[in-house]
């Protein structure tokens, strides 16, 4: 005789009993013998109904329970709680959905009774194979790793640090601020970008909870949600921040001069350098690829020039190891390389620039100190071409969403900078979403900027004419222009593939890191505990990046609470290590990378922290040795046979 | 033949099609009572031999449903279902099981009406081909498949 099982039918205040003949249904189960206890109630999910079940469980010594009621999607948890409160394991209950799947969806009462009987019979057959599942908890580390110290990474780090979390903020360059500090002003309110970031950067540098690691890269990630073991390589800067006062005496002393990549090679810098004035921390770094001392010469010019002994050629790279519970990836974006589309004459003509180069030219800490000089003179006329590389199936098959607004902003700044300049935009559509952006566009129109709508941006051609640059659009020719600025698409950061492998986060079709769900999971990833913030996940403006950063911080703050354990999903899959042949078919099937192969034991192992319980590995195992704890093969077959 | 009421075993994924079936009920839309629904976490949990066993146990038809491609709650479980079930479908035909009896469909949680259309349409199609009678050849073959 099996365990004593209770079969209770809920009338659902008539919703079920008006269609299904409950008495007749129960009569069918009367012959099941003494170990099946039968009963019914007007409304089992009510307080009275739950108390009734509790009494019945205790009175009859019921060990397992079948409830014929509504959808498990509505009340499965209710009856699991009833079981738990009665001292039974919550896994030992099964609902038969005789309301949505039967009483409400069957025309004829007699047929509904037959069907309800079959569904209750299926649940009774299934529950016999249920096993008690125990909740598991693991200790977690509440610290967080944030990769990338642009506006997204800094926002996430500060938000986490405010709640007392220790944050390791890793930045690949020697300075923080990311892409936003490169801009003079930002759209649509034309606020000064460095001024906007200043308080955030100041807090980053002075928050005791944040360990800022500039000039650093994550080299190894092991473990999983709650307990990631991280190795970071902190590259030597050769200038000691505690001794450097940012006086810049070393720049003058340095004999080397190389193009400054930060200004898109529009200016020169030294081998000991800061990419632009005002970058924080205000401490230079030595570029060993160009420094003559690191090439074997005996130069010590910068060290000799430093009055504070801050230059230290003996500094070594440092390996930093830490354990964190959660990770935020905020490594930003790159811009489409305009030279891939030769029709625009980029790189062939010094007067054709990309909009980000124009940003630097306009910027007061840029190559010309904020004066717009293109091809040696102030331009009297300018053209801006939108959508370079964007919305093109061959290059970037998406709209970056920020380039139109950034081009409008540059138009305004050019006009402010060069008196009397005439400006023409060339676009096929305009993307101006948001509550302030349309007004901003109208403001630019009122300033006198021309907007030329063309059929296809790809068919535009920029050529050198005798008086300047000419733009042809099929039969029409526009110009001459003294300068042309190309507005390129936002593309994935150059590290995205490396990050994808290092952190086990998928890449999307465009090469950006992929979010868990593009509507309801826009910051989480399919690797539990790894979140995305900013343009690493896709093109977005500053506002969008900040919002996503706060979402990432919120996700981590609510999931990893200091002193609290992490409760694991009960309904996971498990592999019988005794029987696993180690074929590894399941390894590559798992969308959550929860299955790995143990070379030592020669079997595959499922990590319960990472498993979401989809069961696709269970169905694929050729030996049938993977079990889904809540949907075992026996349970499903028993249910199916009971229903037929 | 017209009195024949087919029984159809339906394996529905919890997140999309099971939810659609719930909504169909909530909307008080009725359909054929021979539909027997078995809830699975994902259509990827359905093993091909469960389908074979359903036929053995007396189902006149078997329907496997999941989320639309790209919408899987578990990222890509339905792609695995697609591969497994397409292959199974071809095998079933060779066993003499008519194609009307076995279907793989994607029905989202928002498609309650489509779910009803689907099960009613399938019921009628199965009604036309008649009750499931496994030939001895098919029984032997499915025994072999089931014993893996």
Task: Give the secondary structure arrangement, pairings included.
The complex is a heterodimer of chains A (644) and B (148).
Chain A: E1 5-10, H1 22-28, E2 36-41, H2 47-60, E3 64-69, H3 72-85, E4 93-97, H4 99-103, H5 109-127, E5 137-138, E6 144-147, H6 151-162, E7 167-170, E8 185-186, E9 191-192, H7 193-206, E10 210-213, E11 216-224, E12 227-234, H8 249-253, E13 258-259, E14 268-269, E15 272-273, E16 285-286, H9 301-305, E17 318-324, E18 326-329, E19 333-335, E20 352-354, H10 355-362, E21 381-388, H11 403-417, E22 422-427, H12 437-446, E23 450-453, E24 460-464, E25 469-473, E26 476-481, E27 483-488, E28 490-492, H13 496-503, E29 530-532, H14 542-559, E30 566-567, E31 573-575, H15 585-589, E32 595-598, E33 603-606, H16 616-620, E34 626-628, H17 633-643
Parallel strand pairs in A: 1-2, 1-3, 3-4, 6-7, 6-18, 7-10, 18-29, 20-27, 21-22, 21-27, 22-23
Antiparallel strand pairs in A: 5-30, 8-9, 11-12, 12-17, 13-14, 15-16, 19-28, 24-25, 25-26, 31-34, 32-33
Helix pairs in contact in A: 1-5, 2-3, 5-17, 6-7, 6-14, 10-11, 11-12
Chain B: E1 8-13, H1 17-26, E2 35-40, H2 48-56, E3 61-66, H3 77-94, E4 102-106, H4 112-129, H5 136-146
Parallel strand pairs in B: 1-2, 1-3, 3-4
Overview of the molecule:
Chain A has 17 helices and 34 strands. Chain A is of the alpha/beta class and 644 residues long. In chain A, strands 10-7-6-18-29 form a five-stranded parallel beta sheet, covered by helices on one side. In chain A, helix 1 (22-28) packs across helix 5 (109-127). The model of chain A has no long low-confidence stretch (mean pLDDT 94). Chain B is an alpha/beta fold. Chain B has one domain: Rossmann fold, CATH 3.40.50. Chain B is 45% helix and 16% strand. Chain B has helices at 17-26, 48-56, 77-94, 112-129, 136-146, and strands spanning 8-13, 35-40, 61-66, 102-106. A four-stranded parallel beta sheet of chain B has the order 2-1-3-4, with helices on both faces. The longest helix of chain B is centred in the middle third of the chain and has 18 residues, at 77-94. Chain B is globular and about 40 Å long. The A-B interface holds A 71-73, 97, 99-108, 111-112, 114-115, 118-119, 122, 526, 571, 589, 591-592, 612-616, 618-620, 622, 624, 628, 630-631, 633, 636-637, 639-641, 643-644 and B 7, 9, 14, 18-19, 21-22, 24-26, 28-31, 33, 36-42, 44-48, 50, 53-54, 57-59, 73-77, 80, 84, 148.
């Amino acid at each position: 005789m099996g365990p004593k099982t209770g079969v209770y039918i809920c009338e659902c205040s008539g919703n079920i009993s008006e269609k299904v003949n409950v008495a007749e249904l129960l009569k069918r189960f009367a012959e099941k013998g003494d170990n099946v206890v039968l009963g019914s109630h007007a409304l089992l999910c009510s307080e009275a109904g739950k108390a009734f079940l509790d009494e019945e469980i205790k009175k009859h010594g019921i060990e397992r329970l079948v409830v014929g009621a509504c959808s498990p999607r509505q009340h499965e948890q209710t009856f699991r709680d009833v079981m738990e409160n009665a001292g039974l394991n919550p896994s030992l209950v099964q609902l038969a959905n005789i309301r949505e799947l039967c009483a409400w969806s069957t025309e004829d009462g007699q047929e509904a009774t037959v069907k309800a009987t079959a569904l209750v019979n299926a649940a009774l057959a299934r529950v016999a194979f249920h096993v008690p599942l125990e909740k598991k908890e693991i200790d977690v580390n509440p610290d967080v790793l944030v990769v990338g110290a642009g506006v997204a990474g800094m926002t996430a780090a500060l938000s986490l640090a405010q709640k007392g979390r220790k944050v390791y903020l890793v930045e690949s360059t020697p300075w923080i601020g990311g892409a936003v500090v490169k801009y003079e002003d930002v759209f649509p309110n034309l606020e000064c970008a460095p001024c906007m970031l200043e308080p955030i950067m100041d807090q980053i540098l002075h928050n005791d909870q944040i360990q800022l690691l500039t000039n650093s890269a994550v080299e190894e990630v092991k473990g999983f949600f709650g307990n990631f073991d991280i190795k970071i390589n902190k590259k030597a800067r050769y200038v000691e921040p505690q001794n450097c006062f940012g006086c810049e005496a070393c720049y003058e002393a340095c004999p080397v001069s190389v193009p400054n990549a930060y200004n898109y090679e529009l200016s020169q810098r030294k081998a000991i350098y800061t990419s632009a004035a005002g970058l924080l921390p205000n401490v230079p770094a030595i570029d060993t690829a160009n420094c003559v001392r690191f090439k074997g010469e005996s130069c010590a010019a910068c060290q000799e020039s430093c009055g504070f002994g801050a230059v230290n050629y003996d500094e070594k790279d440092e390996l930093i190891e830490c354990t964190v519970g959660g990770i935020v990836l905020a490594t930003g974006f790159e811009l489409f390389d305009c030279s891939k589309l030769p029709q625009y004459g980029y790189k062939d003509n010094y007067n054709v620039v990309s909009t980000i180069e124009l940003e630097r030219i306009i910027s007061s800490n840029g190559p010309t100190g904020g004066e717009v000089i293109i091809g040696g003179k102030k331009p009297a006329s300018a053209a801006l071409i939108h959508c370079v590389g964007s919305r093109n199936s061959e290059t970037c098959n998406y709209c970056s969403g920020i380039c139109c607004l950034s081009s409008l902003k540059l138009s305004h700044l050019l006009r402010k900078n060069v008196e009397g300049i005439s400006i023409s935009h060339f676009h096929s559509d305009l993307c101006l979403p948001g509550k302030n952006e349309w007004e901003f566009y109208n403001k630019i129109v009122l300033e006198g900027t021309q907007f030329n709508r063309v059929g296809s941006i790809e068919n535009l051609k920029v050529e050198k004419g005798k008086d300047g640059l000419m733009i042809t659009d099929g039969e029409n020719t526009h110009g001459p222009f003294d300068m042309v600025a190309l507005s390129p698409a936002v593309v994935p950061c150059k590290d995205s593939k490396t990050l994808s492998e290092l952190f086990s986060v998928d890449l999307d079709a465009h090469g950006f890191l992929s979010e868990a769900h593009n509507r309801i999971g826009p910051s989480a990833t399919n690797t539990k505990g790894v979140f995305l913030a900013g343009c690493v996940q896709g093109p977005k403006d500053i506002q969008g990046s900040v919002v996503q950063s706060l979402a990432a911080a919120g996700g981590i703050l609510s999931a990893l609470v200091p002193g609290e354990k992490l409760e694991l999903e009960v309904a996971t899959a498990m592999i019988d290590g005794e029987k696993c042949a180690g074929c590894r078919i399941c390894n590559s099937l798992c969308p959550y990378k929860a299955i790995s192969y143990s070379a030592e034991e020669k079997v595959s192992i499922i990590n319960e922290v990472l498993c979401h319980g989809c069961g696709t590995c269970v169905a694929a195992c050729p030996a049938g040795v993977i079990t889904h704890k809540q949907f075992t093969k026996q349970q499903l077959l028993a249910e199916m046979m009971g229903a037929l | 033949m017209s009195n024949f009421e087919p029984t159809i075993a339906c394996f529905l994924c919890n997140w999309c099609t099971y939810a659609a079936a719930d909504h169909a009920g909530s909307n008080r839309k009725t359909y054929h009572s021979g539909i027997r629904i078995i809830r699975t976490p994902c259509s990827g949990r359905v093993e091909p031999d469960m389908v074979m066993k359903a036929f053995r146990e007396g189902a006149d038809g078997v329907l496997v449903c999941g989320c639309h491609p790209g919408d899987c709650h578990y990222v890509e479980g339905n792609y695995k279902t697609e591969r497994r079930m397409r292959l199974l479908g071809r095998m079933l035909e060779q066993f003499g099981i008519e194609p009307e009896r076995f279907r793989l469909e994607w029905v989202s949680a928002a498609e309650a009406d489509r779910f009803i259309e689907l099960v009613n349409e399938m019921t009628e199609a199965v009604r036309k081909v008649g009750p499931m009678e496994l030939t001895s050849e098919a029984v032997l073959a499915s025994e072999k498949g089931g014993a893996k």
